């Protein structure tokens, strides 16, 4: 596998090795020893999988007191994935990065704890699978507004299908003022 840094410190793009033969293909999506160099001492304690139709936008989510690192991969379809650096001591605090991830691109994303995360589905449907370094704690979850003008995220054009939680996300300034950053 090849590991690439991104514009946000600690966020890494991983190109997976795919083995093709007459039956199809094979890839390793996680290997504790090899990923130690990518995720450091973090340990994964929960695996998630979401299925979404075209135009679904999930996010931007994070946990405040128990931030989750996420190792994410698209196993079907194509998404525009977004991370926002919410680490107050980071030189890239408040900056976002977006990238297209597709199942046939065999790319993984490592998002360290302390980022808000969201995704927008570009294909008819998409399956997104990710490992988390902490368990889901709904009481600790916060939702950063996907279209906060202060962030000015350049989401792809198209209709957006949102949950009511995500329609009512808070701005970065509001979350900051309320002490609800990681
Ligand atoms: C995230 C999550 C949700 N759920 C439940 C709660 C709810 O009934 C249903 C759907 O929850 P949500 O609407 O929060 O699902 P979703 O919008 O897919 O939430 C996810 O969004 C992406 C962008 C992330 O980065 C994830 O960390 C997570 O926040 O699933 C769990 O049981 N465990 C979990 O870990």
UniProtKB/TrEMBL annotation:
Pathway: Carbohydrate biosynthesis; dTDP-L-rhamnose biosynthesis. The active site is at residues 61, 130. InterPro entries: RmlC-like, RmlC-like_jellyroll, RmlC_Cupin_sf. This is dTDP-4-dehydrorhamnose 3,5-epimerase. The keyword Nucleus does not apply. GO terms for molecular function: dTDP-4-dehydrorhamnose 3,5-epimerase activity. It comes from Pollutimonas thiosulfatoxidans. Homodimer. SUPFAM superfamilies: RmlC-like cupins. Belongs to the dTDP-4-dehydrorhamnose 3,5-epimerase family. The keyword Isomerase applies. Pfam families: dTDP_sugar_isom. It is an enzyme of class 5 (isomerase). CDD domains: cupin_RmlC (cd00438). Keywords: Isomerase. It catalyses: dTDP-4-dehydro-6-deoxy-alpha-D-glucose = dTDP-4-dehydro-beta-L-rhamnose. PANTHER family: DTDP-6-DEOXY-D-GLUCOSE-3,5 EPIMERASE (PTHR21047), THYMIDINE DIPHOSPHO-4-KETO-RHAMNOSE 3,5-EPIMERASE (PTHR21047:SF2). Catalyzes the epimerization of the C3' and C5'positions of dTDP-6-deoxy-D-xylo-4-hexulose, forming dTDP-6-deoxy-L-lyxo-4-hexulose. GO terms for biological process: dTDP-rhamnose biosynthetic process; polysaccharide biosynthetic process.
């Amino acid at each position: 596998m090849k590991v690439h840094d991104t514009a946000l410190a600690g966020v890494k793009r991983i190109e997976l090795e795919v083995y093709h033969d007459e039956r199809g293909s094979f890839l390793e999506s996680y290997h504790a020893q090899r990923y130690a160099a990518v995720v450091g001492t973090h340990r994964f304690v929960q695996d998630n999988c979401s299925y979404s139709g075209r135009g679904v936008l999930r996010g931007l989510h994070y946990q405040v007191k128990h931030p989750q690192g996420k190792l994410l991969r698209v196993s079907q379809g194509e998404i525009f994935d977004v991370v926002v650096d919410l680490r107050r001591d980071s030189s890239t605090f408040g900056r976002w990065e977006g990238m297209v991830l597709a199942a046939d691109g065999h790319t993984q994303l490592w998002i360290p704890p302390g980022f808000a995360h969201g995704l927008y589905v570009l294909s008819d449907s998409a399956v997104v699978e990710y490992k988390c370094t902490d368990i889901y704690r709904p009481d600790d979850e916060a939702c950063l507004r996907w279209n906060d003008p202060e962030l000015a995220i350049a989401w792809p054009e198209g209709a957006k299908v949102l949950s009511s939680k995500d329609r009512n996300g808070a701005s970065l300034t509001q979350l900051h003022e309320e002490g609800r950053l990681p």
